[in-house]
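Usage

Read records sequentially. Each one opens with the input sequence:
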Amino acid sequence: MQMMEHYRQLASYDGWANREVARALRGCGSPPANSLKWLAHIVAAEYLWLARLRYETAPFSVWPDLSLDRCEDECGKLSVTWRDFFAARPQLEQSVSYKNSKGEPWTNSAADILTHVFMHSAYHRGQIAADVRQAGHTPAYTDFIHGVRQGLVE
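and closes with the structure output:
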């Protein structure tokens, strides 16, 4: 598998997993506050990194206060946005310069940024799963291999 295809598949997985988490939070009735905070952060961080990759302005702060409805809506939009991003065939080895949330200047390859984005989201989905379970609910089943086996990841 070529690297571009690998990252495209990770984006597909990420979108599916984020939507599954939103659905699971919906099933909680009233989702745990931290879980909703982390899902909103996942959404915002993905938009932030997309904006950095495109040298644009991010639409959200890093830790926005978003409703579950808004998170669900943005998760759907992000899936399309990532699909469009990869359809444009970005140069994975391209250096991307940006300032982090502390205002510090950094430069990383697009490939490193993409790896970070998808691992960062998975990390927070793990936090959400633990939080949901601790609140007495069943967390979303978002294992990558499950998504691939079930044809849920393209």
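Summary fields computed downstream for this record:
- Strands lie at 95-99, 105-109.
- The chain has one domain: 3-149.
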